[in-house]
Amino acid sequence: MISATDLKLTFGKGTPLENPALRGMSLTVNQGEFVTVIGSNGAGKSTFLNALAGEVMVDSGKIVVDNQDVTKLPTHKRASRVARVFQDPLAGTCEGLTIEENLALAIKRGQRRGLTAAVKKQYLDTFRNSLSSLNLGLEDRLGDKMGLLSGGQRQAVSLLMASLTPSAILLLDEHTAALDPKTARFVLELTEKIIAEQKLTALMVTHSMKQALEVGSRTVMLHQGQVVFDIAGADRQGLEVKDLLGLFEKQRGLTVDDDSLLLG
Amino acid sequence: MLSNIAFYGALETGLIYGLVAFGIYLSFRVLDFPDLTVDGSFPLGAAVAAVLILDGWNPWLATGCAALAGMGAGAVTALLNVKLNILNLLASILTMIALYSVNLRIMGRPNLALLQEETVLTPWYDLGLQFHQVPVLLFSIVALVSLVLLWRFMKSETGLAMRATGANPRMARAQGIATGGMIVLGVALSNGLVGLAGALFAQSQGAADVTMGVGVIVIGLASLIGGEAVVTPSTVLRALIACVVGAIIYRLAIALALNADFLGLKAQDLNLITAVLVTLAIVLPGVRTKVAGRLTRNKA
User: Fold this and answer.
1) What number is the ipTM of this complex?
2) Confidence of residue A105 (pLDDT cuts 50, 70, 90)
3) What is the pLDDT of residues B85-99, one digit of tens each?
4) What DSSP string describes chain B?
5) Which residue of B has its CA nearest to A96?
6) Which of B13, B235, B249, B260 is the most exposed place for a label (fewest CB within 10 A)?
7) Which tens digit of pLDDT belongs to each residue from A151-174?
8) Distance between CA B211 and CA B208 in Å, rounded?
9) pLDDT band at B298, cuts 50/70/90?
């Protein structure tokens, strides 16, 4: 379980470029939930994810993961509980390292690293098994450099790496946005499969309203650094993009009047 | 073209600069941390070893302390960068400048002679080898042991975390790696190797001098880049071998240039030759790719 309470964060405080990214964001994600997050550019989606991961520190508010207050902890100290896949397919892996070395880094996520060999024999079966589930033939290429793989393949491996060890939450930051439509579909299906099989708790940011409704068990919309609506269960069943837009219009009418939004 | 003594002399210094190249590989290549501290940590190693040897210490113990002093210098640079957010290059220049004073303080004067002292080389002269072959044998062993240890380290969990820190810090953090700690450890190790090289250099040359560090960074880079041009560094092991090969080639090239009478070069031209060689080493691989590209395009 992960809960964020009244998160506030302003970039460039006291400068002409002052930008309040989070304005009292609160969200609780329960064990086993798969939440999709939508919102326009500048709604605070990425900042929210970065705040949960520890890449940015919030000005105020509280973040609790599995009953531990992690608000003040840097990224690497949250890594044992928080797994992450980035938007940029090149960001989640090291291109200069081999596939097995990348996986060996991930299998030790958040744990102590010693002076024993990083790629251990007993890992290799695990690596091959999980890679073969991708059906990309990567299980026979453990010694290949990551840089030889395509963006889609690298994103698929990033997903495997994030699910190699247990975590309290998996953060997916528009992880299919930089891929071509066919590869994006493949990676999305893989995401759903891994999350379902391992019963992971996940938070997925997406730009597509359609995707936000089709995938996962709950949808949250962010606007101007706050949650504007949050639907799950029966209310979410059969909801379509136009309903979502309607809902948003209604909410927007209540909260802010003068704002132009671009919704994908 | 080269006399026997000049040849072995080039090998001897080449092997020592191979250790410097290891250090520069760690900072520049593995951590992507342009570190100029080495110009200070090389004479620091020499100064510490010389003072301790003159004080009657066991020369190996003195050499070990020199390596530790180098690690300390590297750690200072890295901490200036990680904790105080000073740009890495600037942090290393600050440490380098500070070390000039520190080295003078350690030695108490600009240079110290070690001519009659027992050094790490002394017992090896009893083996019956020719006089100029002894340092080559000993420094080959030191270089080989360092290479194997470094290679094993780079393949370890911590070593892999260090490589990830340099290659992709955001990913490294997400995997739970304390990237700041890795930078401190890596730059410290790097300068430890350079301190070790300085200590060995002082013992083989019979003196430590406060100015002996000038241009060490350029020589180390020349060795690294030259070695990479000859031995493609596709794996860690090859990259480390490239460091030693590059350093030896570099010293041989210098010896040849100085020995070729028709060129009319003298010892004072050393730095100019170094700069020309480094420029060539940086530019030539690019030219080669371009030419190769043109050739294949013409074929197609």
Assistant:
1) 0.89
2) very high
3) 999 999 999 999 999
4) ---HHHHHHHHHHHHHHHHHHHHHIIIIIIS-----THHHHHHHHHHHHHHHHHTT--HHHHHHHHHHHHHHHHHHHHHHHHTT---HHHHHHHHHHHHHHHHHHHHSSSEEE-TTS--TTGGGGGG---TTTHHHHHHHHHHHHHHHHHHHHHTBHHHHHHHHHHH-HHHHHHTT--HHHHHHHHHHHHHHHHHHHHHHHHHHHTEEETTTTTTHHHHHHHHHHHHHHHS---SHHHHHHHHHHHHHHHHHHHHHHHH-GGGT--GGGHHHHHHHHHHHHHHHHHHHHHHHHHHHHHH-
5) B167
6) B260
7) 999 999 999 999 999 999 999 999
8) 9
9) low
Residue B292 has pLDDT above 90, yes or no: no
Domain borders along chain A are 2-94+166-255
Parallel, antiparallel, or unpaired: how do β-strands A34-38 and B111-113 relate? Answer: unpaired
How long is chain A?
264
Count of CB atoms situated within 10 Å of the CB of A232: 15
Report how far residue B239's alpha carbon sits from residue B246's, in angstroms, rounded to the nearest whole number: 10
Tokens 């004073």 locate to B101
Q: Name the helix (H) or strand (E) containing A98.
A: none
Structure tokens at B119: 């050094």
Residue A72 main-chain phi, psi, to 5 deg: -95, 0
pLDDT exceeds 60 at position B166: yes
Cβ <8 Å between B157 and A95: no
- A108 and B176 in contact by Cβ < 8 A? yes
Phi, psi of A106 (to 5 degrees): -75, -35
Report d(CA B100, CA B80) in Å as an integer.
18
- C-alpha closest to that of B251 among B7, B23, B4, B5: B7
Rounded to 10 degrees, the C-alpha dihedral B194/B197/B201/B202 comes to 70
pTM: 0.90
Give the closest-approach CA distance of B152 to chain A in angstroms: 8
Tell me how many residue pairs between chain A and chain B have CB atoms under 8 A apart.
Answer: 88
DSSP line for A7-51: EEEEETTTSTT-EEEEEEEEEEE-TT-EEEEE--TTSSHHHHHHH
Collapsed DSSP state (helix, strand, coil) of residue A81: coil
Query: Using CB atoms, which residue from B158, B171, B176 is nearest to A91?
Result: B171
SS3 A170: strand
